[in-house]
Amino acid sequence: MTRNIIVLDTTLRDGEQVPGAKMNVYQKLEFAQQLKRLHVDIIEAGFPASSAGDFHSVQQIARTVGDSVSITALARAVKADIDAVYESIKLAQDPFIHIVLGTSNVHVEKKFNRSKDAVLQMGVDAVKYAKTLLPQVQYSTEDASRSDFEYLWRTIEAVVKAGATIINIPDTVGYAVPEEFGELIRKINERLKNLNDKVVLSVHCHNDLGLATANTLSAIKNGADKIECTINGLGERAGNTSLEEVIMALKVRENFYQCSTRVETKELIRTARLLTYLTGLDVQVNKAITGDNAFAHSSGIHQDGLLKDRNVYEIMDPRDVGAESMELVLTARSGRHAFRHAVEKLGFETGDSEQFEALFQKFLALADLKKEVYDHDLFYLVNGEREQAASSAVLYELAAFHVVTGSVQPSATIELKRGEQSLKGSATGDGPVDAVYSAIKQLTGIHADLKHYKINSISRGQEAIGRVSIGLEANGKHYVGRAMDTDIVKASALAFLNGINAALLDREPQ
Ligand SMILES: CC(=O)SCCNC(=O)CCNC(=O)[C@H](O)C(C)(C)COP(=O)(O)OP(=O)(O)OC[C@H]1O[C@@H](n2cnc3c(N)ncnc32)[C@H](O)[C@@H]1OP(=O)(O)O
Ligand SMILES: CC(C)C(=O)C(=O)O
Ligand SMILES: [Mg+2]
């Protein structure tokens, strides 16, 4: 008999704590919809007390996917944080409040400068308060793996008696090693079952020593009922446990773990690609499950073996994680049937006939420029179109641009549209992109400092698409912008406008 493991995805909370991983509300909603398709049990949607923007995103996620996925969000052991969590998730069907509070000596003494008893009491009070709002409360003993065991247990016992229904044991700084972490979970599990066998035992591991997946699996083997993970292992510092790795380890080695999950593994690659697209954070090519080379075989002896029998060098079928064994190459000579087939094969809906036609025309324009359109390009084409439709509140649009560069001083002429209004202006700069950015700043009148600029080539072929990610500071806050185009100057202009629009929307909510 297999045991079901509850899967919580915290990409939108711990994952989003990563510099550069910030997403806007439309992007978070798109990702949450994909997590729903992936069949995770719980989405940790954010940290609503941290800003009005995060509160709004958590609320929108709870409203949009909270009918079929359990939703939680994080709070310190602070009343205002707990209130913010409750207010943002209360419309979901199965919401719960997640409270975190440190148990290690260094947290108690250095972070809080209080006695152990006083910190424990803070946790108990927080749980009692959260219970007045919702029946389900998760309590995380932050830095558990570096905590004195008897104090850790005393805390768990007290918060369970106060009403906590899930106890989450974090290896916050990735210090644990598998044998030791497994033993810790075994001991807690034994005592917890005697104390209250309805309480769910959960783990949350970080990857500072590259052991997050191993520690999570060891915890499962030793009785953990629930795991917290992120897609591509995104998360604070070296990241969190990678969801796809644990899920596939449980599936491929079911004979050893005798556990299963509800996760729809065929959605794994698509979820990982979507996250890369939304955050601009690429995955290393040799990353297990979601790296570009995870299912690529290059050496002759391996290829020979595979041709004789796939099992010689394959422990899982690439199709089980949503990887294509064969890619369809589309060109400008492809028709609507082939295009629809390719888009649907990637798992996207093609919309009504008007939406489909608009998408097809965009595809033709791209195919004319790029000659060959790969699955990867289609993925970005469809997502870009959706994101544009979702963010109809965008303030400025690029209507036209012209740049001059070479042995003269680079200059740019830009035409922007804002609703019915048309604005045109020119500027010079150190280079064409700098000139474009100066002209955009002049026209929008926004004081924005470019903090970082990154350009990558995505997809293959000579006419690959350039993806630009920028970070800018405006109104004392940091905003990100991303865009892609076969013309890198245009992609640069669009990414900058994206960031400017995010800053303006923050100042003038629509
Ligand atoms: C392990 C984790 O991943 S925990 C989650 C990490 N996530 C985040 O930090 C989310 C983003 N954070 C934020 O937006 C802000 O830090 C806020 C809104 C939470 C707090 O902002 P501020 O009030 O300005 O406080 P600041 O961040 O400077 O300091 C943290 C304060 O919270 C206290 N604190 C830290 N953890 C906890 C906790 N679990 N419970 C109660 N208080 C806590 C600290 O002791 C400090 O209080 P002090 O000012 O009395 O010393
Ligand atoms: C909030 C907790 C679970 C956390 O992220 C950690 O301890 O790493
Ligand atoms: Mg964490």
Give an overview of the whole structure:
There is one protein chain. With 510 residues, the protein is α/β, with parallel strands linked by helices. The protein has 3 domains: 277 residues, Alpha-Beta Barrel (TIM Barrel); 88 residues, no CATH class; 109 residues, Double Stranded RNA Binding Domain, CATH 3.30.160. The chain has 17 helices and 16 strands. It has an 8-stranded parallel barrel, surrounded by 6 helices. Strand 7, helix 7 and strand 8 form a beta-alpha-beta unit. Helix 5 packs parallel to helix 6. The termini are far apart. The model has no long low-confidence stretch (mean pLDDT 90). Homodimer. GO terms for molecular function: 2-isopropylmalate synthase activity; acetyl-CoA C-acetyltransferase activity; manganese ion binding. Belongs to the alpha-IPM synthase/homocitrate synthase family. LeuA type 1 subfamily.
